[in-house]
Design goal:
The chain is of the alpha/beta class. It is 42% helix and 16% strand.
């Protein structure tokens, strides 16, 4: 079973992996590390609730070395599933949502603030990530940033030329049936908002929202397909079926390692930067000392280096990039100075649940005719 799961992991995105695991009755169940068999968490044992694929031993080696045991890991396919199970009584100590869904978890009463003074690595976390994770009123972080990455246009530079780097190519008839967009409201609506010139893509006026609706409907007719698993676009780009797609750093890394001639655009409106992190759950049985020990281990530069090398994503700790070096980060399309990148990209912030639901409804409305 470990070999089969490892094969799935190498060819499948984390959301799609979650769907596959759930279909065979694995997702949402606590697991030991490395990936072996389900078991229930014992009293006092730390349980970490995270995305499918993040139970891999490489990410938790530092914790095991310091603590003397692997954490207990439970997997989810997306944040909605995770929050629903927690509200239904599933007790975990730490969660791993993304920042755009942070307010919903907070308002649901599922999480409590983090005492950053108890984290030895906190001051090494990029200030831009700390600022987004902090509560504006109390100043306390609701999340410990962990992993981050970019969303941009990955394209075959031997097949297509763009006159200028801009998100507007997704709405240009010249590229009809040559592009693919991620099947995600968070990406599709935000990209349309940036292309339209909306002042704040995460809090649009009615007029801006109407313009975005029109752009998405136009795009819907132009795309070759929406993708839900990054391996779809990796295969399609490698085969020349499409010339470009919305993609993450990991797809750029994978295709370059296969020798596919691809480039990763830096749109003039700014790349998207997403990040996810660890949250302190109100339930669970582990004491706070163990929880903070785990979070510090996840923030360790050695953990970050493993994440960069194997997932192609960025780590929250600036010291991880010192270990990685410029050659490796260039391969992943990650900057040697992430702090500068955050100042020149669009960092996806915590979204008000009502606004995010409005974006999701718009995207589903547009896709009905696809």
């Amino acid at each position: 079973m470990p070999r089969a799961i490892d094969l799935i992991r190498r060819t499948t995105g984390r959301r799609e992996l979650g769907r596959l695991l759930r279909s065979v009755g694995i997702a949402g169940v606590a697991m030991t590390l490395p990936f072996v068999r389900p078991r229930a968490g014992a009293d006092g044992e730390l349980t970490y609730y995270t995305w499918a694929g993040y139970d891999t031993a490489g990410l938790h080696k530092v914790y095991r070395e310091r603590h003397g045991a692997w954490p207990n890991v439970a997997l989810f396919a997306d944040e909605t599933e995770a929050l629903t199970k927690v509200q239904g009584g599933f007790a975990v100590d730490l969660g791993h949502p993304c920042v755009y869904d942070l307010i919903r978890w907070r308002d649901a009463g599922a999480i409590r603030p983090v005492d950053s003074l108890r984290l030895a690595e906190w001051e090494n976390v990029f200030p831009a990530l700390r600022a987004v994770a902090n509560d504006r009123e109390s100043g306390l972080p609701w999340m410990v940033p962990f992993d981050w990455g970019n969303g941009s246009i990955l394209y075959r530079h031997d097949m297509i030329e763009f006159p200028e780097p801009t998100w507007s190519v997704f709405f240009n008839e010249a590229y009809e049936k040559r592009l693919s967009m991620w099947d995600s409201a968070d990406a599709a609506v935000t990209v349309a908002a940036l292309a339209s010139g909306a002042e704040d893509p995460f809090d649009m006026t009615d007029e801006e929202f109407a313009l975005v609706r029109a752009l998405l409907k136009k795009q819907n007719a132009m795309l070759l397909f929406y993708w839900s698993d990054p391996t779809q676009i990796e295969r399609a780009l490698a085969a020349g079926e499409i010339a470009g797609a919305y993609a993450w750093n990991s797809a750029y890394m994978n295709l370059r390692r296969r020798g596919v001639p691809v480039a990763y655009m830096q749109p003039r409106e700014g790349m998207l930067t997403w990040f996810c992190g660890l949250v302190m759950m109100r339930g669970g049985s582990a004491d706070d000392a163990t929880r903070y020990e785990f979070m510090d281990a996840m923030l360790a530069p050695e953990t970050g280096l493993w994440l960069i090398e194997n997932f192609g994503f960025g780590h929250a700790n600036a010291k991880s990039f010192e270990l990685a070096g410029a050659e490796l980060t260039e391969e992943m399309a990650l900057p040697t100075d992430p702090a500068a990148m955050f100042a020149n990209t669009v960092v996806m912030p915590p979204m008000q649940p009502a606004v995010r639901q409005k974006y999701i409804a718009l995207f589903e409305e547009v896709k009905i005719t696809f």
